[in-house]
Sequence to fold (259 residues):
Amino acid sequence: MIMKIISFNVNGIRSAINKGLFEWIYKENPDILCMQEIKACFNQIDTTSFRILGYNCQLIYSAQKKGYSGVAIFSKKYPNIYSFGINDSLFDNEGRVIRADFGDLTIICVYVPSGSSGIVRQTIKMNFLNAFITYILNLQFERSYLLICGDYNICRQSIDINHPERHIGVSGFLPEEREWFEQFIQCGFVDSFREFNKEINQYTWWSYRFNARIKNLGWRIDYHIITNNLKSRLKSAKILQEVEMSDHCPIVVEFLSNI
Fold:
């Protein structure tokens, strides 16, 4: 059985709905849809339409601050186990992580903080990254097959950003952020997209300024990171750059599953 999993930073789920989100979901028909930056609480989301499309809506994790952050997982099958957060109130109050187990597979939907607004948020971002990797490594003791998808707010390598020489010292492309990412990968993970596509100009986010999307001056900051033991089951990984409901675009993976 082929399982299709899409991750999408919608930059406001209500805005995306107004731009055709449900029509697009119907067309793509993913088994699991992970969203970041939903910017809404449960009662502000049209869960009825999700249910009509066949999706479970119980995994919505909103930030305490209204209109901010938040993640969600919509799935056609109910998870065996699920949880919210990483047991750290500083980050969990911002609604940044959901875990859901489907058979032998654990899916983590993550929205890593941005550090672009200044040193305070950059420090919070680095603290989150350190707490998150500890959370993931501890989880591996009980769950062997992990898929960790979402908006990491980091370009892994120079190939993942337009004109890397222009972004030296910019949050999202800082040496310490990329070093963290490589350490993460070295812990037994695979960047699924790069297993299939090693080309340049493969981006998932574009600034709303300076016609960046039209010029394809983007960043690849959204990922499906999988454990090495899932690599043999991986069938495809793509970036859906043509989808324009957000400043991000969706990313998709397909692989063999037994659920």
